Amino acid sequence: MSSIFKNARHINVGGNIVNNNHNHYIGSGSKSSVEKLREHIAAGALHDSAERCDAPKCHPETRVAVQDEVDSWICDGDSDDAPKEIMWVTGPAGSGKTAIMGSVADTCQGKGTLGATFFFSSFSGSVDRRSKRCFVPTLAYQLVQHDAMDQVAEQILSTVERNPAIFEQRLDVQLDQVILIDGLDECEADQYHDTARSNADPRSKEEDQIEILSVLKKAASDPDFPFRIVIASRPEHVIQSFFTEVAHSVTRKLFLDEKYNPDADMELFLESKFASMRRRCHLSSSWPSENVRQTLIANASGQFIYVATVGRFMEGSAGDPDQLLNQVLRLPGIKACANPLAPLDALYTHILNSSPDPHLSILWLDLIFREKCLEVGRREISTH
């Protein structure tokens, strides 16, 4: 397939396509090739899927510098002194990676440069978003829908028609083009019946993550591969080692640190939320004080998820906003803490305790967690 892409440039891939022009491609079976492909995708992993309707997006005018840097690299990366084909967006939990990736996907879709996305999620109700199994078919399905990629679509569909079992093969056999990927660290392990490993430890999620990364690096290293690849994940040891030691020659790293001024973004976010509460509850234009805002930002320790959770807690509660805010500010052990995530832990605990039935809320969370574990276990058994 590489001959299709020879000398093609500036075809940027990252997400969800709309028009379906290839449903007519029908082989010897009763189902079209597109229908066969559709059976193997994780629909919830598309950036604008119904499953992700409540997924975080960057608040207007926030994370602008990060989004601009990613967008500039997608559009103009060829002009860099040392062009790279992969961008790794990384940062700790709660730093806003998924929101940034969702907003970048929206921007690319608006420009017509979006090709395919896959948003992994370890908490998704769909097991397909927590596994590599549907990864390549989901990306291929999106590319098939792309008006500007008729030749690629034709080759993908003819491959599916000739070999429907291709989705059971290794990823490096399946993938020949693609991509924007979020939450790679949330990809869990598929277990296979492998006599060579029958007495060994189960396959680890790190092995599947490295398999995905290896396939993407192989694609990016092909001079005829015209797509840029953006991958977002936490800086887990195995993933970081891969980008540092294996794929450093094709990778540009973007770490979400103080360089991108998260405090200023959080201040804009909080002001928007507080302005809405002031209008709704007829509060003074001076509410809350500047000291309160700065305290919340300091408690966040650069983690955007903290201020987002404060906002959701106050918007979702029926109490007086000032009292709710004071509850947050009075949480124990929240100031001068050596652990930057301790204020977030205290906030989550307070939200659970504030529910009408804290014990029942914890039971529901435990049930959801157990159901997820059982689902993974059932899936592992079914593959043996």
TrEMBL record:
This protein's UniProt keywords: Repeat
UniProt domain NACHT: residue ranges: 85-235
> Which top-rank group of organisms is this from?
Eukaryota
Family matches, as PROSITE patterns:
NACHT (PS50837)
Matching Pfam families = NPHP3_N
Q: Which InterPro entries match?
A: NACHT_NTPase (IPR007111), NPHP3-like_N (IPR056884), P-loop_NTPase (IPR027417)
Entry coiled-coil feature ranges = none
Q: What is this protein called?
A: NACHT domain-containing protein
Q: Which species is listed as the source?
A: Candolleomyces aberdarensis
Q: What is the lineage of its organism?
A: Eukaryota, Fungi, Dikarya, Basidiomycota, Agaricomycotina
